[in-house]
Specification:
The protein is of the alpha/beta class. It folds into two domains: about 160 residues, Rossmann fold, CATH 3.40.50.2300; about 150 residues, 3-Layer(aba) Sandwich (Rossmann fold). It has twelve helices and twelve strands. Helix 6 links the parallel strand 6 and strand 7. The two termini are about 15 Å apart.
């Protein structure tokens, strides 16, 4: 029990603001294992980390997990998989909604009416069809990116945004937080001062459609159509990878800065986030805690099934990572949660 408690406390240092965790798990209905369906947005590398977190929690609590994620971001396919989970009579569904969509909301309501507990992670949907959302505070994360952008540009210059999906709530919130913070920087400190033309200007927003290839094309379009653009803000892992690839291929690392989201390995023709930081293509990224989204999603699903109440919103934290701080131990813990769990299990 001492080793288990140590593990839970260590995991909590990875950025979650959850007030507490229940360290006991019930035995489920009639001593059968509790079953949970996890429906992520798509099958790219970002979702490998929350899957690992979910699997670790599932093993600790002796729960049956199924991963029912569409290959690409498709909200209608998510709705279909929710209905499939209902037909299998799962106890809970943990879902990362691709969009706050009526068809998906109806499917989740149908699941609720059949006694299934619903938790959203990473992005949200209307509150009435879920019990809790476990995610980054996306508005705040967007504001962090904007503060870094303003510092890099010295308070003036053209900015482009590569958004991962216009219909995704987390994309809207990240963009909203970024834009609001930029607007604040553009306000005169003295109300009597006239507004200056030397300010931060968001000149274009393009969608990456939830994939790397389209994100690269979107970034190239912004750069080619706006020759004075000085910085690109990318709102997800896939858009960050695509944007970095575009800047790298166009040879614009010295003139176009990139602020993105999430660390990544070198795949699908891209370099890793570490390599892009080292080469100056990537100037910083917002590090989320996807491991905890999966881990806490399963733990709190267990609590709901056992009749406990949980918070309606749980913030898993956001940290700005740059070349200067990437090797800090707390950042490395979040970036390498699998190694952390191996070390804890071996120690």
């Amino acid at each position: 029990m001492k080793k288990y408690t140590k593990k839970i406390m260590k995991i909590l240092t990875l950025g979650t603001l959850a007030a507490s965790l229940s360290l006991t798990g019930g035995c489920g209905k009639d001593d059968e294992k509790t079953s949970v369906s996890l429906i992520f947005k798509c099958q790219n590398q970002f979702w490998e980390t929350p899957k690992t977190g979910a699997e670790d929690a599932g093993k600790e609590l002796d729960m049956n997990l199924s991963f029912d994620t569409p290959e690409t971001e498709d909200v209608k396919e998510q709705a279909k998989r929710v209905k499939d989970a209902v037909s299998r009579k799962v106890d809970a569904i943990i879902i990362a909604p691709t969009a706050d969509d009526d068809e998906l909301a109806d499917a989740l309501k149908y699941a609720q009416n059949n006694g299934i507990k619903i938790i959203t992670i990473d992005s949200d949907i209307r509150e009435e069809v879920r019990s809790s959302c476990i995610s980054t505070n996306n508005t705040y994360a967007g504001a962090i990116a904007a503060r870094q952008a303003a510092e890099i540009l010295g308070g003036q210059g053209e900015i482009g945004i590569v958004i991962h999906l216009e219909t995704a709530t987390n994309a809207q919130e990240r963009k909203g937080g970024f834009v609001s913070q930029i607007d604040e920087y553009n306000q005169p400190e003295d109300k009597d001062e006239e507004e200056t033309t030397d300010k931060l200007n968001i000149v274009a927003t393009e969608s990456g459609n939830g994939n790397i290839s389209d994100s690269k094309d979107a970034a190239k379009k912004i750069i080619n159509e706006n020759p004075d653009v000085k910085l690109l803000f990318a709102t997800s892992q896939s858009t960050t990878i695509g944007t970095c690839m575009a800047v790298d291929e166009l040879g614009k690392a010295d003139s176009v800065q990139v602020i993105g989201f999430d660390s990544f390995e070198g795949k699908e023709g891209s370099k890793s986030s570490n390599e892009y930081l080292d080469s100056g293509v990537l100037d910083g990224f917002i590090l989320q805690n996807p491991y905890n989204e999966g881990y806490l999603g399963v733990r709190y699903a267990r609590d709901l099934i056992d009749g406990q109440s949980i918070a309606t919103a749980i913030d898993t934290g956001a940290t700005l990572v740059t070349k200067d701080n990437i090797n800090n131990s707390d950042i490395q813990l979040i970036m390498n949660p699998t190694k952390l769990m191996e070390d804890l299990n071996n120690g």
